[in-house]
Fold these 2 entries.
Entry 1:
Amino acid sequence: MEKSILELRGVDHVFTMGMGQKMKVLSDVNVSLYQDEIVAILGPSGSGKSTCLRILAGLLRPTDGQVLIQGETFGGPNPLVSMVFQSFALLPWLTVFENIVLALEPFDLSRNDERSRVRRVIDLVGLEGFEEAYPKELSGGMKQRVGIARALVMERPVMCLDEPFTSLDVLTAETLRAEVLKLWLSKKTATKTLVLITHNISEAALLAKRILVMGTNPGHIRVTIKNDLPYPRDEKTLGFKNLVDRIHDVITQAIIPDQPEWVPPAAAGGVIETVPPVAVPEVIGLLEFIAGRGGQADVFGLTQMLGKDFGHVLFLVKTAELFDFVDTPKNHIVLTDFGKRFIEGDVNVRKRILHEVLRGLRLAQLLEQRLRDAENYTLSFDSVIEGVKEWLPNENAEAVLDALIQWGRYGELFGYNGDTKMIYLDVGQENA
Amino acid sequence: MYNYIPLKSRFSWADVVMLACVGGLIYAVIGVAQHWTGKFQPTLAIDLSPWALPRYSFFSLTRALVGYTISLAFTVVYGYVAAKLRRSEAVLIPFLDILQSIPVFGFLPGLVIGLMSLFPNSNLGLEIACVVMLATGQAWNMTFSFYHSLKGVPKDLVEATSVMRLNWFQRLLRLELPFSAVGLAWNSLMSMAGGWFFLTVCESFTLEDRQFHLPGIGSYMAVAIERGNHAAMFYGIVAMCAVIVFVDFVIWRPVLAWVQKFQMEETESHEAYRLPFVMSLLSESRLLSRMRAWRSRRRRERKLKRAMKRFRKGSRKPAPSSLLRGDPLFALASSHLAGEGTLSDPLQPLELQKEDAFDGGEEDGGKFVRLGRYLRRHADDFIELGAKLLPPVAVLLTLWGGTRVWELIRTLTLEDWKQIWRGVGFTGVRVFGAVALSSLWTIPFGVYVGLSPRLTRLFQPIVQIAASFPAPMLYPLVLTVMFKFGIGIRWGSMFLMFFGVQWYVLFNVLAGASSIPRDLKDGFAMMGAGTLARWKRLYLPSIFPYLGTGWVTAAGGAWNACIVAEYIQYNRETLIAPGIGAMICRTTAAADFPRLAGCIIAMVIVVVVLNRTLWHRICELGETRFR
């Protein structure tokens, strides 16, 4: 076995939020990086991909566990790692040349040496003629080229790329992706290993030799998928398609398992199901979309057609499933009769149905009970949050309560005054 | 960059102006130096002839600029420490809040007595005291601005520089200072105005029944007002205007144009500063362009010489670092880099790391060079040490200062305290009155002007200059008008405060009104909303957050201004309005330090408590409700 350059060993990370609330974002992450490979870290938002990368780069110190360079620890930013940012992170007051040469400032180089090094990376990424331009004069694709050139000029063995193509339009992203791959294949650079964060499955499949699929709550590595397809890869080949399907399956399993880990709320005694942090209109939109396609769709097709992040679409599906609006056998989504009734009804019908569904949710029941016990059926947001933390110790209580209030408002179960931050029971419906 | 050098006309008008400026500057600097080091003359007779004014103006300008330089240095150091040393923040920021609420007379006795005993035989002590007092009117808002900028540097930019392993100084120079530049520039402009405001009291004051006059426009105006010499007052006002316009054109416009470069996004505002007069003057100058051409030729020659020398030596390989050879981590890094090598690469692999920039061989360099290298290499250790030492030092200093102040105010009786608090009450009413008065005219006017980009462009430079003019110099005029209407000094001093602080409200209302989005305005117009509805639903809610900031600054300014508004020596008599400001003036003049300390403590408490409660709530409301 080849020796690894860089290693994350048993890394845990806990963020302390406001008011001392703690949130575990990474749990027992183990990653080894070897020379001459591209590793993609793939996962839905909230799976701690970015935190993972920042720990690797030495920008964050893990709460527990170690980052090792050939078995040795280090302090401060990782000396072997350069980084490319989603937002480009260029200094707007420096020209392209000055932005790149900034990365050489810690080295005591002569002007000539600096100049020729910068020239060379500018040449590699195709920025000739733009040396004197300011970032604001450049398109997104050109900006990211500067970001890549700046990372290359440092000649670090490992380059971390944090969703480098996400802020670019589709065509530019595709071009730049191909160029990065070509550059890596050409072996002209001192950087031999790329670590790429993405939520785009085909991007991971196109570039990576190894794909680490991350799961949420707290973030952890679910599966490592090896990808030995020869470069350059073609999206139309059967091998590629099979690989993408496999990745899809893994991610789908992570978010909506076939064997539900949760018990339907009505029957639930002890288990309390959380409310996913998605917006009401989005779920309704999803249902409308499925209804418009004969009441059936598959998850991947849906993602492509909606043009949204795969993980996010899965959250939407999960929410619809929580309310029994859809069934999800394997990768398919089927509208239930109940879901049909909901989607065919007018606004008032929908509200009534949602009202009933919510009253069946354990979490909503608990909150309702609390409000009934309270004076004027009213409680402050802050006092309810304490309860939510008790009920769901592993969740981000504020996000859950925000979602619950949002759903409750739509289903006319609860009301909320944003100015006073008070939640109250919506008694209008009962009186009527 | 090669410059075009014209062959025929060797000089242009711009060169004449420039040469005259340089000559004048040299003459003036010599004059200032002679005065500062000259024989001590505390009670200088102020010459009220208008011909004395150019010299006085230059002296005042020098003081203000030196004071500004001190403020800037203070800002960078204090703001940086407060933002970077985590534990220091909790001490330094509240302390800054206290500092900014101490009126200038709070610093005066200590500074003047201390510095005069340090330099008993020259004017230097008195001059330094005056400059530092001016700086106390300038520094604080700049420091707050810099601190907030440092805290607000975008996270990705910080991470990018961390990955590059820039050291703290490189990061300050390349990232933090440029990012703060826009805020610092606008606050510098305000600071300068703040300095001018107290020019009269900083240049001429009474301490222990001794009159001090330093040569300057402030003293000139003070004497003219005291004697009721209307002609001299007029000359003084003209000279002050000239100085302010001069500074605006020569310093602020070029600076504001230059900092546009550091704007995070391209915005359309402040376009009026695109081509400042001074910049076009400099680019017109043939002399300067010749100098540039000469310099670049020299540089090319030097480069050629160096290249020849290297060629003869036959080597371009940099010496490997002695420090890092033993470090396994970096050895590993460089072996990775060197290993497969970068084919087709004529350059040496980058193997020198961070610390190495300071490691050009241990042996060479003199004592100071080596010391400097040592300090830089251990900068982070020193910062760490500082962070550890700061809290105990702060506690000790507070204890020491506390006991000294306690010794001072122990002698005060209950009756004294009652008087002090009554004074604070009177002044407080005036402060709120002044802020209310300011809002009364600036809100309608500011909204009217701010809604139209054309009017905003027209008015902004005018308002900028008007706001810089020190209101105390206009007090005699205001008083004369007020006495005509039968308003006494008790209420009159409220108007005087109002004259000083209205600009803060106006500036913010203007900013708020010009930030109302176009589509909202159009939407209201299409709905056919009446004037009242527009004000209630659109204008007032839109400007409220800005108005909050304006009120806070104006109230702070009004508290500080009470010392010039409640105690005025005009036309050979002293006009006194009961209040804390007048008490501070009287106790300073009589050197009644226990009472002075009591007054200042009371005022600081009130200002800080109001800031933390009332104003904080209003700002918070603006942020949450109306954003």
Note: Chain B touches chain A through 48 residues (CB under 8 Å).
Entry 2:
Amino acid sequence: MSFLDIVNLQKSFGSAYAVKNFNLSVVRGEFVSFLGPSGCGKTTTLRMIAGFEHPTAGLIRIDGKDVTNLRPNQRKIGMVFQSYALFPNMTVAENVAFGLKVARKPAEEVKARVAEMLKLIGLPHLGDRYPYQLSGGQQQRVALARAIAPKPQILLLDEPLSALDAKIRISLREEIRAVQRELGITTIYVTHDQEEALSMSDRIVVMNEGQVEQIGNPFEIYNRPSTRFVASFVGTLNILRAKVVDGASGRVAVDGQEIILPHGLPVSGAGEATLALRPEAITLNAHDASGSRLDGTIDEVSFLGSVIRIRVRLQNNIVTLDTFNNVGHRPPERGQPATISFAREDVLVLDEPQAA
Amino acid sequence: MKNSRLGSWLTIVLGAAYFLIPLIATVEFSLRMKRGEYSLEAYRVVLTDPRFQATFGYSTLIALATIVVGVLLVVPTAYWVQLRLPRWRPVVEFVTLLPLVIPPIVLVFGFLRLYNSSSWLPLTGSARGTDVLLTLGYATLALPYMYRAVDTGLRAIDIRTLTQAAESLGASWPTILFRVILPNVRVAVLSGAFLTFAIVIGEFTIASLLNAPAFGPYLQLIGANRAYEPSALAIIAFMITWACMGLIQVVGRGANRYRAAR
Amino acid sequence: MTQQAQTSTFPAGQVPRLPGMSFAWLGIVPFMIFAVMFLIAPAAILVVGAFQDQTGAFTLENIVNLFQPSIMSAYWISIQVSTASALIGALIGFFLAYAAVSGGLPQSVRATLMTFSGVASNFAGVPLAFAFLATLGRTGLVTTLLVKYAGFNIYSTGFNLLSFWGLVITYLYFQIPLMILIITPALDGIKKDWAEAASTLGASRLEYWRYVAFPILWPSLMGTMLLLFANAFGAIATAYALTGSSLNIAPILLYAQIRGDVLHNPHLGYALAFGMIVITGLSNGLYIWLRGRSERWLR
């Protein structure tokens, strides 16, 4: 049973669409991320759910109730902002208590709830501090506590980690996810960081230019991108230009070397196809010869610590792949011949080929 | 949303009315000197009045002298405090704010007690001495504005590195101050200078009590004795203030372009 | 004098490089000499004089004598004019600044308002009095137009430009712009996210202002009001040109005292000046303290 329903949502500014034909059903307790580049409409959609923007068309239902025309303060939502947006004139405890105070909850209940929230975010001793005395990570945790203290129906997070250091970002994203699981609160999380979306979400909505490109769980989004945009935006991807040899049986040639695709192509004659390969799907100089193989030369080797990134030039196409660092094994050197191999199923066909 | 914007417009329009009506009225009044027609007669009378020319010229000279004294006083001090005496900063800042605490009328009262013709330093005893005292008094009035402008300007550039770079090239202290630091805070200094000019040119209290032949007392005198000329003078004074503020904006914008070009 | 002292800055600059000893403080000696001679000493000699009798002995008599009706009423009218013009100026200035900053108006409105405020806040003194005489004086444009087209004579209501409210209205011409100039940065510091955060937490617009925006702004508001108060309190030129000496405010009384010893006691004059320093000093001190408070939050 879906808890949050977004039906045919549209938002236009003048003649330009910020969001177009947005449809989504979120079940209770689900963690859904909106992922996309800046200006893709993900924040506008979130702000329509919050009530800060009024949709041009479409409707938003929370728990079966149409909230499209409700003001933000009537929607019972919790929101966390990129800028933390803590009230600077209030202590941490007063910030967390704010939603309860305006809801006229009895003082004892407020006190107990604030203590509970501060414990939940691991800052029980900082209740009397002011926001300016806290680090960015601490401030954002307080903002999270403040948002969930009044027990909102839905939690909205707008790029909450973008202003933080890389290390804190990773620890905090685990913390947010843990808190969300513990409370079972339905959550929409807006981010442009694919790693964040992939690691935290139950489902991801990938958006581009105001439209939904794909909705799916992280595994699907990463491994079976349905559009070229999703494939290139999520993860790194090797793009290969190939000539169709025999469309029906899926035989194509990459720089003159023939491989077989996981499925046949709808064109019969000669044409061009765009293929994609994830770096981690490729093995370098494999001993067993199953799957597809392509020969080339090592073009560049970058030592990145635990991982070594290797670029192999086939002829016109270039393939990047990662191998783990191995103390007993010297990395290959530039100019050496190399063979890359990959399972047939790992090849993604991005554009349906066109007849030449 | 629509309603609040309407309210904003209404507020602004009412505010504009309060500020523009006196200006319009003053312009209108200043044109009425000749009975039955609008003319620039009042302006002609004022501008050809030898006392106007004398007092305005005098006040302009005093204002320029004030600016020179202010710059020579403030730039080295602000520079030195930032470079070498950061711990003195609160003290110096407090002193620069004192003119806001001590009203000009009190200040000039003190001057008259300290520097009267029978004191150890009889500045008010001679015309030249009065000029000096007036200039220094105006320098105190301008101090808060000048210091803040220059201090902000200095903070915007890295004076420590600039100084060290100049020192490593063998520059002497006067060279560093006048050829390196001053040109880099030119905009701040100019802003402070124009503001000083606007404050000082029509100043009444100090000039009047020092019996200086300045523009402010002249304005007051005309106001007490004439009908239309004061309006013309008010418009002239307003235009001078406007010009000073306009010049501050112009040099500020020029600086931004200069920065962007780098 | 200053010129001479000035040149000593440069040699002083080289001194600190001597090992072990620091003479860096010599660099601000010219400034300090200037400040002492033309700022601190003039004020100090009045303060000292306020506590001396004619023979130079210490006394509190002058301070006690300040509490005679004519002097008290001068202070009191001054305080009332300054308070009224500060309160009204702050209120109107706040609404104008708020309309320009968050009223959804074009950017050009804000730029114009700021430029104009820069000009008007410095358009004080004698010319300002002239402008208001030409507007609201007995033969002023607004006065005559009201009589001609509305049949309404504001002077028949008891209004007089050369009175308390006339002075307040005139002072507003520089008080409002000063408020706008000072409060606009504070309004810029109010982030839109705070209003949005408050509304997602269930707060109404009124609750947001009551619990968040106003508490954040009030140190700036109060502080600016104190600055406006001091600004009006020390002003004399406008009042003098407008009312001559018919309105008995403290600075005009002091002006008359300096001119002709109307109190017949020079030391009472020093006490009068001392009283003014105390009042402007208190309001400025509070202003600086409050500004520090608000800056701490808005960092």
Note: Chains B and A do not touch (no CB pair under 8 Å).
